[in-house]
Amino acid sequence: PGLLTRTKGAEEGQLMPSGVFEKSTPVDAGANELFAWHARPGALPRLTPPWERVEVVDPGPGLENGARATIRVKIGPFWRRWVAEHRDVIVGEQFRDVQLEGPFTAWDHLHSFGAKDDGTSTLTDHIEFRLPAPTGFVHRALGRTFGWRHRITVGDLAAQKRFAGARPMRVLVTGASGLVGRTLSTYLSTQGHEVVPLVRGAASESTASWDPAAGTIDLSAAGPIDGVVHLAGENVASGRWSEARKKRILDSRVEGTTLLARALARLEPKPRVLVSASGTGFYGDRGDEVLTEESAHGEGFLADLARAWEAAAEPATDAGIRVVNLRLGIVLTPAGGALPKLLGPI
Fold first, then answer.
1. What is the pLDDT of residues 162-189, one digit of tens each?
2. 208-211, strands of its sheet edge to edge
3. Sheet strands (E) in the chain
4. Integer Cα distance of 178 and 336 in angstroms
5. Torsion-angle region of residue 253: left (phi > 0), alpha (psi -120 to 50) or beta?
6. What residues contact 80, with CB distance under 8 A and at least 6 apart?
7. Phi, psi at residue 185, to the nearest 5°?
């Protein structure tokens, strides 16, 4: 039994009395696939909405009875530790998260995966909670959060279905702790791929190491690599562009990319692809001109930066590795980047 009396007959997203919330969504995947997606590394941070002030401290060892997940949640100006224990785990059917420590007086969250005869399933989140003084705000917050979580789950499983049969990949990622890198890494992990972050400092069992400023890189701990996603580089929007700072921005991209491309060129076997970040600044300010990948580069600091950045990957191209340059625009997310800076004047 749950911590509170279960209310029967809940409809889609219906708000029920006594601190109970439930939401169900049809999923175009089997119940076993749905369960497996939740059991993979990266599922907990993948399901954390970008607007929530939440940090995953320890996702735990996986979906097994007695395993515990620990997060930090910011309530007002203070951070609060939240520990939940997995219980009543039935592979392919359900698992329950029960709060051991956290902001609620009680929290019991049942994740259930109902199989259908047509091979699809139903994802249901049933939450029973207690607060010293429950308010409608909690129900609204849960509705928003689980609406987002269900959309992410449905979308990710649809992507998984499109690539059914493809073998899992081992992907080296630079900038894995950054805004884009965190989202990409959790996405790849929940799709069944193995992510190997390339980090500054000593390597571990699950990471490789480099120091672009010192010109050193050690990929021996990475093992065979299928693909590389290169996102590292100093943030162009974190301060004024003094001449010294522009040099740091340029060096962090060109030196880091050159170092990585040369190291990848020496590997045997070589990765099949290097996806290397660049920017739409490549084109400069062209007004209303329609631009394509075939358009010439523009003028100005960002255009010069993007040209040099893309050229730095040439050692990988020369070694027969497919190189893809991502000319990214402005990243907008409640988790950080440009959006919080824009919200102030708006």
1. 998 889 999 999 999 999 999 999 999 9
2. 216-218, 208-211, 194-200, 170-174, 227-230, 273-279, 322-328
3. 15-16, 20-27, 54-58, 68-75, 78-90, 94-101, 106-115, 121-130, 170-174, 194-200, 208-211, 216-218, 227-230, 273-279, 322-328, 332-333, 336-337
4. 10
5. alpha
6. 72, 73, 74, 102, 103
7. -65, -45
Checking 67-76 for CB contacts under 8 A at 24+ apart, the result is 68/100, 69/44, 69/97, 71/44, 73/102, 73/103, 75/103
Q: How far is CA 190 from CA 43, 44, 244, in A?
A: 6, 10, 40
Query: Token match 């998984």: residue?
Result: 160
Which residues lie below 8 Å from residue 341, measured CB to CB, with a gap of 6+?
237
Spatial neighbors of 125 by CB under 8 A, at least 6 apart, are 21, 22, 23, 24, 109, 110, 111, 146, 149, 150
Query: For 5-48, what is each residue's pLDDT tens digit?
Result: 333 334 444 443 358 899 999 999 999 999 999 999 899 999 99
- Contact indicator for 39, 94 with CB cutoff of 8 Å: no
d(CA 32, CA 119): 10
Q: How does strand 194-200 pair with strand 208-211?
A: parallel
Q: What's the rounded Cα separation, in Å, for the pair 141 and 156?
A: 23
